[in-house]
Amino acid sequence: LGIGSSIQPLNNSIILGSIIITLFICLSSYVLWHFKDYQLWHQTIGWIMLGLYTVISALVTSFGRVSFGVEQALSSRYTTFSTYLIISIIHLMIIVREDCIGKEYLLINRSLFSKIICWFLGIITVLQIHNFTYSIENMKSWRQNYLKYKGCLLLINFTHDNCQNLIDSYYFESHRQRARYLTEMGFLHPGLIQTNRIQDLVDTNNEREVEGIFEKLEFIGGNNLLATGWAIFTDTGLPVDAIVLSYDNSQGESIVSAVADMTMPRPYLVKEFKSQKYFKSGWQKVLSTHKFPQGNINVKAWALDTDTAKFYQIPGTHIVNKNGQNLSVVSGN
Q1: What does the pLDDT read at residue 7?
Q2: What is the DSSP string of 181-250?
Protein backbone atom coordinates (compact mmCIF):
# COMPACT_ATOMS: atom_id res chain seq x y z
CA LEU A 1 0.00 0.00 0.00
CA GLY A 2 3.01 2.29 -0.27
CA ILE A 3 3.76 4.90 -2.89
CA GLY A 4 5.39 2.26 -5.04
CA SER A 5 8.22 3.04 -7.38
CA SER A 6 8.38 6.78 -6.83
CA ILE A 7 11.04 7.34 -4.14
CA GLN A 8 13.67 4.72 -3.45
CA PRO A 9 10.83 2.33 -3.52
CA LEU A 10 11.05 -0.56 -1.08
CA ASN A 11 11.87 1.03 2.29
CA ASN A 12 9.68 4.08 1.73
CA SER A 13 6.79 1.93 0.56
CA ILE A 14 7.03 -0.29 3.63
CA ILE A 15 7.19 2.65 6.05
CA LEU A 16 4.45 4.70 4.44
CA GLY A 17 2.25 1.67 3.83
CA SER A 18 2.61 0.57 7.46
CA ILE A 19 1.65 4.03 8.75
CA ILE A 20 -1.38 4.23 6.48
CA ILE A 21 -2.69 0.73 7.23
CA THR A 22 -2.13 1.22 10.99
CA LEU A 23 -4.12 4.46 10.94
CA PHE A 24 -6.94 2.78 9.04
CA ILE A 25 -7.07 -0.16 11.44
CA CYS A 26 -7.12 2.15 14.49
CA LEU A 27 -9.88 4.35 13.07
CA SER A 28 -11.96 1.36 11.96
CA SER A 29 -11.50 -0.28 15.37
CA TYR A 30 -12.84 2.83 17.07
CA VAL A 31 -15.96 2.74 14.90
CA LEU A 32 -16.44 -1.00 15.53
CA TRP A 33 -16.03 -0.41 19.28
CA HIS A 34 -19.00 1.95 19.09
CA PHE A 35 -21.07 -0.23 16.75
CA LYS A 36 -24.27 0.70 18.61
CA ASP A 37 -23.80 4.37 17.73
CA TYR A 38 -26.01 4.57 14.62
CA GLN A 39 -25.03 8.17 13.79
CA LEU A 40 -21.31 7.31 13.85
CA TRP A 41 -21.92 4.27 11.64
CA HIS A 42 -23.97 6.34 9.23
CA GLN A 43 -21.16 8.90 8.90
CA THR A 44 -18.28 6.45 8.54
CA ILE A 45 -19.59 3.38 6.68
CA GLY A 46 -18.94 4.86 3.21
CA TRP A 47 -15.35 5.82 4.03
CA ILE A 48 -14.66 2.47 5.68
CA MET A 49 -15.93 0.67 2.57
CA LEU A 50 -13.69 2.84 0.38
CA GLY A 51 -10.69 1.94 2.55
CA LEU A 52 -11.62 -1.75 2.56
CA TYR A 53 -11.77 -1.70 -1.23
CA THR A 54 -8.14 -0.58 -1.26
CA VAL A 55 -7.06 -3.19 1.30
CA ILE A 56 -8.86 -6.03 -0.50
CA SER A 57 -7.47 -4.92 -3.87
CA ALA A 58 -3.97 -4.89 -2.37
CA LEU A 59 -4.42 -8.40 -0.95
CA VAL A 60 -5.73 -9.78 -4.24
CA THR A 61 -2.84 -8.18 -6.12
CA SER A 62 -0.30 -9.47 -3.59
CA PHE A 63 -1.50 -13.07 -3.84
CA GLY A 64 -1.84 -12.89 -7.61
CA ARG A 65 1.56 -11.32 -8.30
CA VAL A 66 3.75 -12.55 -5.45
CA SER A 67 5.67 -14.95 -7.72
CA PHE A 68 6.81 -12.07 -9.97
CA GLY A 69 9.00 -10.52 -7.27
CA VAL A 70 9.43 -7.09 -5.69
CA GLU A 71 9.84 -5.09 -8.91
CA GLN A 72 6.48 -6.27 -10.24
CA ALA A 73 4.80 -5.78 -6.86
CA LEU A 74 5.93 -2.14 -6.72
CA SER A 75 4.70 -1.32 -10.22
CA SER A 76 2.58 1.84 -10.14
CA ARG A 77 -0.29 0.07 -11.88
CA TYR A 78 -0.85 -1.94 -8.68
CA THR A 79 -0.20 0.72 -6.05
CA THR A 80 -2.08 3.78 -7.29
CA PHE A 81 -5.33 2.62 -5.69
CA SER A 82 -3.66 3.25 -2.29
CA THR A 83 -4.71 6.88 -2.83
CA TYR A 84 -8.29 5.84 -2.01
CA LEU A 85 -7.16 4.62 1.41
CA ILE A 86 -5.52 7.97 2.14
CA ILE A 87 -8.74 9.79 1.23
CA SER A 88 -10.68 7.41 3.47
CA ILE A 89 -8.33 7.99 6.41
CA ILE A 90 -8.53 11.79 6.14
CA HIS A 91 -12.33 11.76 6.41
CA LEU A 92 -12.38 9.09 9.11
CA MET A 93 -9.91 11.11 11.20
CA ILE A 94 -12.16 14.16 11.10
CA ILE A 95 -15.32 12.18 11.94
CA VAL A 96 -13.68 10.17 14.73
CA ARG A 97 -12.10 13.30 16.18
CA GLU A 98 -15.49 15.05 16.38
CA ASP A 99 -17.00 11.96 17.98
CA CYS A 100 -14.19 11.74 20.54
CA ILE A 101 -14.66 15.38 21.53
CA GLY A 102 -18.41 14.85 21.82
CA LYS A 103 -17.87 11.85 24.10
CA GLU A 104 -15.06 13.71 25.93
CA TYR A 105 -12.51 10.99 25.08
CA LEU A 106 -10.14 13.49 23.53
CA LEU A 107 -9.16 16.84 24.95
CA ILE A 108 -7.61 18.66 22.00
CA ASN A 109 -8.60 22.00 20.54
CA ARG A 110 -9.76 22.36 16.96
CA SER A 111 -6.83 24.56 15.96
CA LEU A 112 -4.21 21.97 16.95
CA PHE A 113 -6.15 19.16 15.32
CA SER A 114 -6.50 21.20 12.11
CA LYS A 115 -2.73 21.73 12.09
CA ILE A 116 -2.15 17.99 12.47
CA ILE A 117 -4.50 17.27 9.55
CA CYS A 118 -2.80 19.91 7.40
CA TRP A 119 0.62 18.48 8.28
CA PHE A 120 -0.56 14.99 7.32
CA LEU A 121 -2.07 16.26 4.07
CA GLY A 122 1.11 18.18 3.27
CA ILE A 123 3.29 15.08 3.59
CA ILE A 124 0.95 13.03 1.40
CA THR A 125 0.77 15.82 -1.19
CA VAL A 126 4.56 16.08 -1.43
CA LEU A 127 4.85 12.33 -1.88
CA GLN A 128 2.12 12.28 -4.50
CA ILE A 129 3.71 15.14 -6.46
CA HIS A 130 6.98 13.23 -6.49
CA ASN A 131 5.10 10.14 -7.63
CA PHE A 132 3.34 12.16 -10.35
CA THR A 133 6.58 13.42 -11.90
CA TYR A 134 8.04 9.92 -11.77
CA SER A 135 4.92 8.54 -13.47
CA ILE A 136 5.12 11.09 -16.28
CA GLU A 137 8.68 9.99 -17.05
CA ASN A 138 7.62 6.35 -16.97
CA MET A 139 4.72 7.06 -19.33
CA LYS A 140 7.18 8.54 -21.84
CA SER A 141 9.38 5.47 -21.53
CA TRP A 142 6.45 3.08 -21.97
CA ARG A 143 5.23 4.99 -25.00
CA GLN A 144 8.65 4.72 -26.60
CA ASN A 145 8.74 0.99 -25.95
CA TYR A 146 5.28 0.52 -27.46
CA LEU A 147 6.34 2.40 -30.60
CA LYS A 148 9.45 0.23 -30.87
CA TYR A 149 7.32 -2.92 -30.63
CA LYS A 150 4.91 -1.51 -33.18
CA GLY A 151 7.78 -0.89 -35.58
CA CYS A 152 8.83 -4.50 -35.22
CA LEU A 153 5.24 -5.63 -35.71
CA LEU A 154 4.85 -3.65 -38.93
CA LEU A 155 7.99 -5.35 -40.28
CA ILE A 156 7.28 -8.77 -38.80
CA ASN A 157 7.38 -10.46 -42.22
CA PHE A 158 10.88 -9.26 -43.08
CA THR A 159 13.23 -8.98 -40.09
CA HIS A 160 16.05 -11.51 -40.34
CA ASP A 161 16.19 -12.28 -36.63
CA ASN A 162 12.39 -12.32 -36.14
CA CYS A 163 12.78 -9.38 -33.74
CA GLN A 164 14.19 -11.74 -31.14
CA ASN A 165 15.27 -8.74 -29.05
CA LEU A 166 11.62 -7.64 -28.82
CA ILE A 167 9.36 -10.68 -29.32
CA ASP A 168 9.65 -14.05 -27.57
CA SER A 169 10.46 -16.60 -30.28
CA TYR A 170 7.87 -18.99 -28.81
CA TYR A 171 5.06 -16.53 -29.62
CA PHE A 172 6.51 -15.11 -32.81
CA GLU A 173 4.45 -17.12 -35.33
CA SER A 174 1.19 -16.56 -33.45
CA HIS A 175 1.90 -12.81 -33.27
CA ARG A 176 2.65 -12.72 -36.99
CA GLN A 177 -0.55 -14.58 -37.86
CA ARG A 178 -2.66 -12.32 -35.66
CA ALA A 179 -1.04 -9.23 -37.17
CA ARG A 180 -1.97 -10.47 -40.65
CA TYR A 181 -5.58 -11.03 -39.60
CA LEU A 182 -5.78 -7.59 -37.96
CA THR A 183 -4.40 -5.97 -41.12
CA GLU A 184 -6.91 -7.80 -43.32
CA MET A 185 -9.74 -6.69 -41.02
CA GLY A 186 -8.51 -3.09 -40.99
CA PHE A 187 -7.81 -2.96 -37.25
CA LEU A 188 -4.04 -2.52 -37.49
CA HIS A 189 -3.07 0.98 -38.60
CA PRO A 190 -1.20 1.58 -40.85
CA GLY A 191 -1.13 -2.19 -41.43
CA LEU A 192 1.72 -4.59 -42.01
CA ILE A 193 4.40 -3.33 -44.38
CA GLN A 194 4.18 -5.38 -47.57
CA THR A 195 7.70 -4.92 -48.94
CA ASN A 196 11.22 -5.23 -47.61
CA ARG A 197 12.51 -2.60 -50.07
CA ILE A 198 12.87 0.57 -48.04
CA GLN A 199 13.07 2.83 -51.11
CA ASP A 200 9.39 2.06 -51.77
CA LEU A 201 8.46 3.58 -48.40
CA VAL A 202 10.78 6.57 -48.09
CA ASP A 203 8.92 9.83 -47.38
CA THR A 204 9.85 11.82 -50.49
CA ASN A 205 7.86 14.82 -49.23
CA ASN A 206 10.05 15.09 -46.12
CA GLU A 207 7.04 15.75 -43.91
CA ARG A 208 9.21 15.05 -40.85
CA GLU A 209 12.87 15.71 -40.15
CA VAL A 210 15.26 13.49 -38.26
CA GLU A 211 18.26 14.69 -36.29
CA GLY A 212 20.84 12.06 -35.54
CA ILE A 213 23.68 9.94 -36.86
CA PHE A 214 24.60 6.33 -37.52
CA GLU A 215 27.71 6.56 -35.36
CA LYS A 216 29.47 3.24 -35.50
CA LEU A 217 29.42 -0.24 -37.01
CA GLU A 218 31.95 -2.70 -35.64
CA PHE A 219 32.69 -6.39 -36.04
CA ILE A 220 32.14 -8.34 -32.79
CA GLY A 221 32.81 -11.91 -33.89
CA GLY A 222 31.02 -14.66 -35.74
CA ASN A 223 28.72 -13.19 -38.37
CA ASN A 224 27.68 -10.31 -36.13
CA LEU A 225 28.11 -6.55 -36.22
CA LEU A 226 27.27 -4.01 -33.53
CA ALA A 227 25.52 -0.91 -34.85
CA THR A 228 25.10 2.18 -32.66
CA GLY A 229 23.78 5.70 -33.11
CA TRP A 230 21.17 8.20 -31.99
CA ALA A 231 18.16 9.91 -33.54
CA ILE A 232 15.20 12.15 -32.64
CA PHE A 233 12.30 13.64 -34.57
CA THR A 234 12.90 17.40 -34.67
CA ASP A 235 9.18 18.28 -34.61
CA THR A 236 8.54 16.49 -31.30
CA GLY A 237 12.02 16.48 -29.75
CA LEU A 238 11.44 12.81 -28.87
CA PRO A 239 13.39 9.70 -29.89
CA VAL A 240 12.25 8.30 -33.23
CA ASP A 241 9.56 5.61 -33.10
CA ALA A 242 11.81 2.80 -34.34
CA ILE A 243 15.21 2.33 -35.97
CA VAL A 244 15.44 -0.09 -38.90
CA LEU A 245 18.81 -1.28 -40.19
CA SER A 246 19.21 -2.21 -43.84
CA TYR A 247 21.77 -3.61 -46.25
CA ASP A 248 22.05 -3.03 -50.00
CA ASN A 249 21.39 -6.01 -52.27
CA SER A 250 23.14 -6.61 -55.60
CA GLN A 251 20.76 -4.14 -57.30
CA GLY A 252 21.68 -1.41 -54.80
CA GLU A 253 18.28 -1.56 -53.07
CA SER A 254 18.10 -1.09 -49.30
CA ILE A 255 16.61 -4.25 -47.78
CA VAL A 256 15.14 -4.49 -44.25
CA SER A 257 17.42 -6.40 -41.90
CA ALA A 258 16.53 -5.71 -38.25
CA VAL A 259 14.86 -3.38 -35.74
CA ALA A 260 17.20 -1.84 -33.18
CA ASP A 261 16.95 -1.51 -29.41
CA MET A 262 15.90 2.03 -28.49
CA THR A 263 16.18 4.64 -25.72
CA MET A 264 19.83 4.02 -24.88
CA PRO A 265 21.20 6.79 -22.61
CA ARG A 266 23.42 9.36 -24.31
CA PRO A 267 24.60 11.69 -21.50
CA TYR A 268 27.39 13.13 -23.64
CA LEU A 269 24.78 14.47 -26.09
CA VAL A 270 22.95 16.22 -23.25
CA LYS A 271 26.22 17.87 -22.26
CA GLU A 272 27.13 18.76 -25.85
CA PHE A 273 23.75 20.16 -26.95
CA LYS A 274 22.67 21.35 -23.47
CA SER A 275 19.25 19.73 -23.81
CA GLN A 276 17.71 16.83 -21.90
CA LYS A 277 15.77 15.66 -24.97
CA TYR A 278 18.87 13.86 -26.24
CA PHE A 279 19.31 11.70 -23.14
CA LYS A 280 17.27 8.70 -24.35
CA SER A 281 17.97 9.20 -28.05
CA GLY A 282 20.49 6.36 -28.40
CA TRP A 283 19.98 3.06 -30.17
CA GLN A 284 22.00 -0.07 -30.82
CA LYS A 285 21.63 -3.46 -32.47
CA VAL A 286 23.63 -6.65 -32.82
CA LEU A 287 23.21 -7.24 -36.53
CA SER A 288 23.38 -10.74 -38.00
CA THR A 289 24.89 -10.82 -41.49
CA HIS A 290 23.99 -14.37 -42.55
CA LYS A 291 21.68 -13.03 -45.29
CA PHE A 292 24.07 -10.36 -46.54
CA PRO A 293 25.31 -10.83 -50.13
CA GLN A 294 28.99 -11.25 -50.94
CA GLY A 295 31.23 -8.26 -51.63
CA ASN A 296 31.03 -4.68 -50.38
CA ILE A 297 27.67 -3.88 -48.81
CA ASN A 298 26.24 -0.55 -47.69
CA VAL A 299 24.63 -0.72 -44.25
CA LYS A 300 22.23 2.12 -43.42
CA ALA A 301 19.95 3.15 -40.57
CA TRP A 302 16.42 4.46 -41.02
CA ALA A 303 13.92 6.11 -38.71
CA LEU A 304 10.44 4.62 -39.02
CA ASP A 305 7.30 6.68 -38.37
CA THR A 306 4.92 4.02 -37.06
CA ASP A 307 1.84 6.17 -37.75
CA THR A 308 2.51 6.46 -41.48
CA ALA A 309 4.93 3.56 -42.16
CA LYS A 310 7.33 6.04 -43.79
CA PHE A 311 11.12 5.84 -43.57
CA TYR A 312 13.67 8.63 -43.07
CA GLN A 313 17.36 7.93 -43.54
CA ILE A 314 19.68 8.72 -40.67
CA PRO A 315 22.99 10.30 -41.75
CA GLY A 316 25.84 7.84 -41.92
CA THR A 317 26.50 4.86 -44.19
CA HIS A 318 28.92 2.06 -43.35
CA ILE A 319 30.50 -0.34 -45.83
CA VAL A 320 30.93 -3.99 -44.90
CA ASN A 321 32.98 -6.48 -46.90
CA LYS A 322 31.78 -10.07 -46.90
CA ASN A 323 34.16 -12.54 -48.52
CA GLY A 324 32.96 -16.07 -47.93
CA GLN A 325 32.93 -16.48 -44.15
CA ASN A 326 35.22 -13.49 -43.64
CA LEU A 327 33.61 -10.26 -42.55
CA SER A 328 35.08 -6.80 -42.01
CA VAL A 329 33.96 -3.19 -41.75
CA VAL A 330 35.70 -1.30 -44.54
CA SER A 331 34.66 2.28 -43.85
CA GLY A 332 31.96 4.57 -42.56
CA ASN A 333 30.86 8.07 -43.42
Answers
A1: 45
A2: HHHHHT-SSS-----SBGGGGB-TT--S-EEEEEEEEEEEETTEEEEEEEEEETTTTEE-SEEEEEEE-T
Q: Is residue 267 part of a domain?
A: yes
H helix or E strand, kind and range, residue 114: helix 110-154
Is-contact 192 157, C-beta < 8 A? yes
Evaluate whether residue 1 is within a structural domain: no
Helix axes 38-65, 9-33, angle to 10 degrees: 150
For the packed helices 82-102 and 9-33, what is the interaxial angle rounded to 10 degrees? 40
Query: How far is CA 180 from each of CA 191, 193, 308, rounded to the nearest angstrom?
Result: 8, 10, 18
Task: Read off the pTM.
Answer: 0.69
Inter-residue contact 97 to 90 (CB < 8 Å):
no
DSSP 35-64: TT-HHHHHHHHHHHHHHHHHHHHHHHHHHH
Residue 120: partners with Cβ closer than 8 Å, 6 or more residues away: 90, 93
- What is d(CA 135, CA 74) in angstroms, rounded to the nearest whole number? 13
Domain containing 86: what range? 9-146
Percent share of the chain, pLDDT over 70: 84
Residue 229 near residue 243, CB atoms below 8 Å: yes
Cα angle 227, 233, 237; round to 5: 115
CATH of the domain at 285: 2.60.40
Mean pLDDT of 41-49: 91
Q: Give the separation between CA 70 and CA 8, rounded to whole angstroms.
A: 13
Burial class (CB in 10 A: 0-12, 13-18, 19+), 250: exposed
